[in-house]
Specification:
Helix content is 43%, strand content 22%. The protein is α+β, with helices and mostly antiparallel strands and 391 residues long. The strands form 3 sheets. A 6-stranded mixed sheet has the order 5-4-6-3-1-13, with helices on both faces. It has a 4-stranded antiparallel sheet with strand order 10-11-9-12. It has a 3-stranded antiparallel sheet with strand order 2-7-8, sandwiched between helices. The structure holds alpha-D-galactopyranose. The site of alpha-D-galactopyranose has 11 residues, from helix 5.
């Protein structure tokens, strides 16, 4: 764990409030394959990474909530009785979780909290889900609420859906909470059953390339994609009443029921049913240690996201095009909700530096700005980082 962040967060907490009771770490996430499939009740294949949100928390004697965002040098104060949307963005991921806990009848009283981290913000690595999971884990520990990890995931997702207003699926919060070193999580988003699958990185470096595009349109467009998928289900259902989500559909049904209808709905649903199947096939590739076949599917996912689901952007398309024929790149695609964020690249070990240099050049000549990249490793999920009295 990065000691500098822990020391800093502890110091800031000391300056404002004295000694914290707990420090919690909750990581960002990557997703190997299975994009926009979670809210269609399909599968996803995410993992937690070694970039995380850290939260120091301490109980208060009153009903006040004092929040400090160390990286933003911002503070926010409210009370348990007055939880409301802040319009400042960062407090809302914390307040949303408090709101859900209170609505579910859990006893939460006043607390002090300092948040910091090294998950790049707005880069599509789910810093917001990490903040929600960290908050839920911290409050669960502080007030001995007795929630298990699945309950914390669902509550954090609900906070994002209802308080923040993004109709996200369950993937980001699940990955942050359940991540495990060197493993990806195959999550069935319908049953919420999951299995860890080894992801061997002895020959691979995971490289994220940041489009630098902050996805401001993302939440409206994201919610719109959900509506389009639901519309597809509604039409398919007329012929196949047992289909309640695109998880239950297949390409034949999509062709039969949607091909002559709205072309947008048809394209969206085509991508989703293909992607759900692609993930299943990709998992077989993983089990068989066939990384080249796995990587090819990542490129196919990118094409589907870009052309059929239309959630890519020109920067992400350019970044994927720039690596597609590179011998050192096993697979690459845009990752996460889209409209910006990062591409994920599986690069042969020891070759990332030269690749980054080459792609940075291409990116600069095309967009006149430097390319930011992050080398990440698969890491454990949400946990206590350091108990105050364990120093
Ligand atoms: C965002 C959402 C997730 C998921 C991805 C796309 O990250 O928060 O629930 O839908 O987009 O796969």
């Amino acid at each position: 764990m990065p000691q500098n962040i822990l020391t800093r967060i502890q110091k800031i907490f000391n300056q404002h409030f004295g000694e914290p009771d707990y420090i919690v770490r909750s990581p960002g996430r990557i997703n190997m394959i299975g994009e926009h499939t979670d809210y269609n009740l399909g599968f996803v294949l995410p993992a937690a990474i070694d970039k995380a949100i850290y939260m120091a928390i301490g109980k208060r004697e009153d009903q006040e909530i004092h929040l400090v965002a160390a990286d933003l040098e911002a503070t926010y104060v409210t009370t348990i009785e007055n939880i409301a949307y802040s319009h400042l963005e960062w407090p809302d991921y914390i307040l949303g979780v408090v709101d859900q806990l209170l609505k579910a009848g859990y006893l939460v009283t006043g607390f002090n909290l300092v948040v910091a981290g090294d998950v790049p913000l707005g880069a599509g690595l789910s810093s917001s889900a990490a903040v929600e999971c960290a908050t839920c884990f911290a409050l669960n520990t502080l007030f001995a609420l007795g929630l298990d990890r699945k309950q914390m995931v669902q509550l954090s997702q609900k906070a994002e859906n209802e308080f923040v207003g993004v109709q996200c699926g369950i993937m980001d919060q699940f990955a942050s909470m359940f991540g495990k070193k060197e493993q990806v999580i195959k999550l069935d988003c319908r049953s919420i059953e999951y299995a860890y699958m080894p992801f061997d990185t002895s020959d691979i470096q995971i490289v994220l390339m940041d489009t630098g595009v902050k996805h401001s349109l993302a939440s409206t467009e994201y919610n719109q994609r959900r509506i389009e998928c639901e519309e597809g289900v509604r039409v398919i259902q007329k012929k196949y009443p047992t289909v309640v989500s695109l998880r239950d559909a297949n390409s034949n049904m999509v062709n039969e029921c949607l091909k002559t209808g709205d072309p947008i709905v048809y394209n969206r649903c085509t991508y989703i049913v293909e992607e759900i199947q692609r993930l299943q096939d990709a998992c077989i590739n993983l089990v068989q240690h066939d990384l080249p076949a796995f990587g090819k599917k990542m490129f196919a996912t990118h094409d589907g996201l870009s052309r059929l689901y239309e959630v890519s952007c020109k920067e992400a398309d350019e970044l994927v095009a720039a690596v597609r024929n590179e011998q050192t790149v096993v697979g690459a695609r845009m990752m996460g909700g889209g409209f910006g964020g990062c591409t994920i690249n599986l690069v042969k070990k020891g070759r990332s530096e030269e690749l980054i240099e080459k792609v940075s050049g291409i990116f600069y000549s095309r967009f006149s700005r430097p390319l930011k990249t992050y080398l990440v490793n698969i890491d454990d999920g949400t946990s206590l980082a350091l108990l105050n009295n364990e120093q």
